[in-house]
Amino acid sequence: AAPEAAFDTKITRRRTRPVKVGDVTIGGSAPVVVQSMINEDTLDVEAAVAAIQRLHEQGCEIVRVTVPSMAHARALADIRTRLLQDYQPVPLVADVHHNGMKIALEVAKHVDKVRINPGLYVFEKPTSDRTEYTPEEFAKIGTKIRETLEPLVISLRDQGKAMRIGVNHGSLAERMLFTYGDTPEGMVESALEFIRICESLEFYNLVISLKASRVPVMLAAYRLMVHRMDELGMDYPLHLGVTEAGDGDYGRIKSTAGIATLLAAGIGDTIRVSLTEAPEKEIPVCYSILQALGLRKTMVEYVACPSCGRTLFNLEDVLHKVRSATSHLTGLDIAVMGCIVNGPGEMADADYGYVGKQAGAIALYRGREEIKRVPEAQGVEELINLIKADGRWVDP
Ligand code: SF4
């Protein structure tokens, strides 16, 4: 018999603990959170504030910045103040490196979450003649990492803030590479080492990521992480992303292949699509992934046939017109079909349908019911009238 899950048409998400980042929650029963990162130098407070606001207005719910120096960390205080004065609070995350632990402690005062990369906590110089680390050497470095990390963990814990343990496949520490290889296992063990340090200090506001630029590596790392966390009784939320995905169609498809595959299996609580384009362009991709999987509905769902020899009007044109007129009506499903050869069920139970009927005429549907036939030239206008008559219209 088929497993019960095979009949599910809704994704059941892995149970995770809720982690607060400002007023946004990652994990728990919260919807999957969309985030991105600004490119601006945070020393340029004006430009950084404008970029954060731009992203937030696009629907980016958490914004990340990098803080390469103490001056950058201090600038975050001004950025935060400016956002509060001129706009609204935006949950902020700062990326920091181990050699800037003072920087991390400073920035932790001004942001809601700090992201650290375990691969950058290296206390060993890469050596060409070394081929392994003894367990003693391995543990000794672990102790140094713990001592280094402790003040930041305590600061975040005491302020009720969060930390992302963000492992990258491309920057694993040498001792992890030698011990576990350049593998998902090495990535997972890196994350677990840092989680254990945090837990020993009673800090649990953690989000974990295991990014890679190769989708199969990224998939394996997250799946293994979930497996290990389940074994260990850990329920930390996961931040999903494919690094260095590039740009254009392929960058979007590559990100979607990684992120959506995991989301469909119920894995993932926040996502970032990394594109080599303006960060604002990442946000619609995130929301499209979430909508396609039925995890969040933030726009009109258009159902449209690809058109064929039976098509009775220019489907591409009509879909474009219908979209321009209705794309602000969040929550509706609208179908545009060249004909209704296989019955109204083909419209996937859309709320409204615009269907080719005969040359020069189209039919409008409400659900599966044909409401009226109108000349094609009035099709879009009549569709709007029908939505208005049903009280489901709002002005753009
Ligand atoms: Fe062709 Fe009709 Fe199918 Fe559209 S719905 S692809 S027009 S058969």
Automatic annotation (TrEMBL):
Supply the InterPro entries for this chain. Answer: Dihydropteroate_synth-like_sf, IspG_bac, IspG_bac-typ, IspG_C, IspG_TIM, NO2/SO3_Rdtase_4Fe4S_sf
Cofactor note as given: Binds 1 [4Fe-4S] cluster.
Using the record's annotation, list all stretches that form the IspG TIM-barrel domain: 16-287
Report which superkingdom the organism of origin falls in.
Bacteria
Tell me what reaction this enzyme catalyses.
(2E)-4-hydroxy-3-methylbut-2-enyl diphosphate + 2 oxidized [2Fe-2S]-[ferredoxin] + H2O = 2-C-methyl-D-erythritol 2,4-cyclic diphosphate + 2 reduced [2Fe-2S]-[ferredoxin] + H(+)
Which pathway does this polypeptide act in?
Isoprenoid biosynthesis; isopentenyl diphosphate biosynthesis via DXP pathway; isopentenyl diphosphate from 1-deoxy-D-xylulose 5-phosphate: step 5/6
Q: Which GO terms describe its molecular function?
A: 4 iron, 4 sulfur cluster binding; 4-hydroxy-3-methylbut-2-en-1-yl diphosphate synthase activity (ferredoxin); iron ion binding
- Presence of keyword Metal-binding: yes
Protein's name according to its UniProt entry: 4-hydroxy-3-methylbut-2-en-1-yl diphosphate synthase (ferredoxin)
Tell me which species this is from.
Vasconcelosia minhoensis LEGE 07310
What gene is this protein a product of?
Answer: ispG
